[in-house]
Amino acid sequence: MAEKYDFIIIGAGGSGLAAAMYGARLGMKTLVIGSSHSSELPVGGLITTTNIVENYPGFTQIGGFALAKKLEEHARAYKLVTIKNEKAIEVKKQTKEFLVKTNRSDYSGKIILFATGSKWKKLDVPGSEKFERKGVNYCALCDAPLYKDKIVAVVGGANAAACEAQILAQHVKKVYMIYRGAETKIEASRLEEIKKDKKIEIIYNTNITEVKGNSLLKSIVLDKPYKGKKELELSAVFVAIGHEFLSELAKKLGVKINAKGEIIINHKDCSTNLPGVFAAGDVTDKEFKQLISGVAQGCTAAYSAYEYLKHV
Predict the structure, then answer these.
(1) 3-120+243-309 and 136-239: same fold?
(2) What is the C-alpha separation between 262 and 255, in angstroms, rounded?
(3) Helix ranges restricted to H, the chain
């Protein structure tokens, strides 16, 4: 028989953990399920892949994994919160409740919150996994200050990559933008800014084929020579080739998803098109995706869930 809860949160990143804290404070018996079936991230979510966080209030500088652990410990401090490091594989609507199946058990809840987040599209070349968090990075806003006066590269040719390059240029000596196409997909005004920035250089029609180093990344190998060399010495690669929004479970339940795969929400209360189903964090269609904004959405979703619960 399924264990019963008032509030089931799928996803244990910052948004889910913040929602759990507020759910418990509002008197709801709350379950956090660690991940969706399409994510391998630990409790703490995407922030655990960031070396240093310098933009979260209360911490001038803290490791991403350390910050995630503090959020987890805070959530676990509430007796009404249970965290299960399991994978949710199915969510079904029953008569008055929802049934959530995981790889280990079944749970029923009156309210569902999808806080499943997103994952970066990875640079799938030899060495990329080995040097992840050791030079292969995914967030310039998080990690750019670590490479002050260094040479770095950004992989990608759309607005997200351009934004990463511009953030990096404020800190580093040189930024190579490496793009597989002949023309970028950067909006015209931003492209003009990129071209005027002497620190940023775009390398077109080129792919990275290997990442090399010792304990840290030292160089990248290209599929064609650039200025006579196939190998570029640098300190970091920032991958900006897009995100995959982990909304598959919500979509199967009948939650409306946009063309990007983001869950469409009412930004006032984090509700979806389905009664009793809410969403928060990077998986939603909010434009600014940062830990702090995701945590705020988690709090809002928990309060909205509490108000909903009073009337069902």
Answers:
(1) yes
(2) 10
(3) 14-25, 64-76, 140-143, 159-169, 188-196, 248-253, 291-309
The pLDDT of residue 246: 93
Q: Which CATH code, of 3.20.20.140, 3.20.20.150, 3.50.50.60, 3.30.70.20, is assigned to 3-120+243-309?
A: 3.50.50.60
pTM: 0.76
Token pair for 48: 């655990």
Which DSSP state fits 61?
S
Domain locations along the chain: 3-120+243-309, 136-239
Confidence of residue 120 (pLDDT cuts 50, 70, 90): confident
Tell me the torsion sign for CA atoms 272, 277, 280, 282: negative
Phi, psi of 50 (to 5 degrees): -100, 130
Model confidence over 170-215: pLDDT tens digits? 999 999 999 999 999 898 988 999 999 999 999 999 999 999 999 9
- Distances in Å between the Cα of 236 and the Cα atoms of 66, 67, 99, 186, 215 are 22, 23, 44, 22, 13
d(CA 218, CA 134): 10
Fold of 136-239: FAD/NAD(P)-binding domain (3.50.50)
The answer for residues whose C-beta is within 8 angstroms of residue 153's C-beta and 6 or more apart is 175, 176, 177, 178, 208, 220, 232, 234, 236, 237, 238
> Whole-angstrom distance between the N-terminal and C-terminal Cα of the chain?
23
As a whole number of Å, the CA-based R_g of the chain is 21
The DSSP call for residue 311 is T
